[in-house]
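Two entries, shown back to back:
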Amino acid sequence: MMLERPNMQGEALIIGSAGVMIDQTLNLERAIVFEDSDSLDNPEAVFK
């Protein structure tokens, strides 16, 4: 029902939710540093 036309409130809610998830993903990507990671540089060392 939220996606039925012309449900503008439903559309705004869904689009807004997607935008929030995209923002959260971008923030997580910025927060995680992959440089000099043992698990990426030498994946087999993780299980030792």
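entry 2 starts here
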Amino acid sequence: MFTTLLIALVGGAVLYFVYAGDRSRAVFLLAGCALVAFVLVIAAVRIALGYRRGRRLELEHNVPPSRLMRAMELRQWLILTLGVAFFALATGALTALRVVTADAATPPAAATTTPTLEPVTPEPTTPEPTTDVSPSDTADPTDTADPSDTARPSDTADPTDPADIPLDTPATKYLDTQPALDGGYDAIAVTFSAHRYPRGISFYCDTDADSRLQWNVAGYGHFTTTAGIDDETQNTFGVVVGILFYDQDGHQLVPKPVEVSVGHPKEVSLNLKGAVSLRATCSGRIAKTNKEHNTRTSFGDPILTQ
């Protein structure tokens, strides 16, 4: 009896530490603990009733009790069944508490990233008439600067020039909060090699022609993210995903596809100078056979910066 209780205690602790940290698996652990506890409580009631009925038959009709009832006394059976049920309920309660605590701690972490990234108003670098006007021009207060001194094409050609960026453009922006111009995605937390990214994007990957995402990135000069396949994605044994990035004119922003697989994410850093739109395409395949294979791929912390 005590050995069984000890095994139940150790088993509950192992299940808690292995499965309670992930929300999707924690739900199954909670359901399993509740089911086990319910079954054991019912078993305890049935054993108590059976033990009482067996005692009555033994006294009134001299019928010996069953082997199950003779294995242990009623008190021992109740300690065993209700003890294991208690461990199951405790495991489920601790799992629920851990999930609730994780959910309560996640929103502040995500909320602190956006408000603190409000931009400082950039200093205009182009309209400086006093630097291009000669001393004789400044002597006459009615004289104005030559328009050619403040409106050179070279000063306005770069769309990421600080003078051309709207003052309300944030210095940093996460793409998981931005609507896609083309394609669709799920804004969820992703995990690569047990490293969790609270701000993430997950999307379906078929072929380069069919699987695409596009965003407006005007005013931003760089894009960084961690690309990969989430650890929890099913049917990804031997699967490799190749990801390509383009600007609005179809110019490829990486020399070759960024290839990722489960357990092998890649850091991505793109120069968006001159880009108004950013398009990502992807295709999946079996590494050994090069046969097309549909799967999901993800971006962890996809960030635009000026």
